[in-house]
Design a protein that fits this description.
Length: 147
């Protein structure tokens, strides 16, 4: 019941329009996104305006990958990005993932192809950063183990 209420609240915030930053520093998506070597992408998709919850999902995800996966980030086995789906240069990547609202996606690139999975559970964990980071690090570990 509590999860349902949180989800309804989050959806209400999305439909009411988030307020917040005008993210001009969004990573521009370029051709290296589709690297041929097996890797995982963790992408925080967002629009021009973000509410507190939207910002927390992205900030905690970035903090998680930096804290737990620095070797994988440096090697290119793991890529993290904040992607503003409202920017024209990010349209192709947003469509590839199916991102149309603030969300956290994990893309897996293997020799067999590409698969993407939206992680909704992170929204239920933003009230506890430690729990969020522990949860997301386990999800990423599982994805990396499957490469």
């Amino acid at each position: 019941m509590k999860k349902l209420l949180i989800l309804l609240l989050a959806l209400t915030l999305f439909s009411a329009g988030c307020v917040g930053n005008d993210d001009e520093g969004t990573t521009k998506v370029v051709a290296e996104t589709l690297q041929e070597s097996p890797h995982i992408e963790v992408i925080h998709f967002h629009g021009n305006n973000q509410c507190y919850s939207c910002q927390a999902v992205g900030a905690y995800a970035e903090e998680t990958v930096n804290a737990y996966f620095s070797d994988e980030l440096n090697s290119g086995k793991l890529i993290f990005r904040h992607v503003n789906f409202d920017l024209p240069e990010n349209k192709e990547l947003s469509q590839r993932y199916g991102a149309a609202y603030s969300s956290l996606w994990i893309g897996t690139y293997t020799e067999e192809g590409f698969s993407a999975e939206q992680n909704m559970d992170v929204w239920y964990k933003i009230d506890n950063k430690t729990d969020y980071m522990s949860y997301l690090s386990k999800v990423i570990d599982e994805k990396l183990a499957g490469l």
